Amino acid sequence: MMWDVVGEIRKRVTSTLRVEGFDIGFADSSPDREDPVHAHIHVVPRTLGAPVHLPPGIEWVYLGSNSPPA
Questions:
Q1: Could you give the C-alpha distances from 29 to 5, 32, 56, in angstroms and in order?
Q2: Residue 43 near residue 22, CB atoms below 8 Å
Q3: pLDDT above 50 for 23
Q4: pTM of the model
Q5: How would you label 35-67 residue by residue, b for 16+ Cβ within 10 Å and e otherwise?
Q6: Which residue has the higher pLDDT, 31 or 41?
Q7: Which of 13, 24, 30, 68 measures 20 to 30 Å from 57, CA to CA?
Q8: How far is CA 18 from CA 10, 37, 60, in A?
Q9: 30: number of Cβ within 10 Å
């Protein structure tokens, strides 16, 4: 279901912004951290000529149609 939500977010972003692609990242907290256990997905649109600074510690997902994140 979460990947369906990511697809919907991508669709909505591309309907309002001109983007050349997306970087998608997944992160979850480890059980030994003090934070409550959680997971989150980053959906980062890429626009032509604008550098993207991806946060460290995220598992970036290659979707096949976009260039893999640097």
A1: 20, 8, 14
A2: yes
A3: yes
A4: 0.65
A5: eeeeeebbebbbeeeeeeeeeeebebbeeeeee
A6: 41
A7: 13
A8: 11, 35, 22
A9: 7
- Residue 12 dihedral angles phi and psi, to the nearest 5°: -70, -40
Give dist(CA 53, CA 38) in Å, integer. 23
| Radius of gyration of the chain measured on its C-alpha atoms | 13
Q: Is the four-CA dihedral 50, 54, 55, 61 of positive or negative sign?
A: positive
Question: Which of 35, 34, 12, 46 lies closest to 60 in space, CA to CA?
Answer: 46
Residue 70: other Cβ atoms inside 10 A: 8
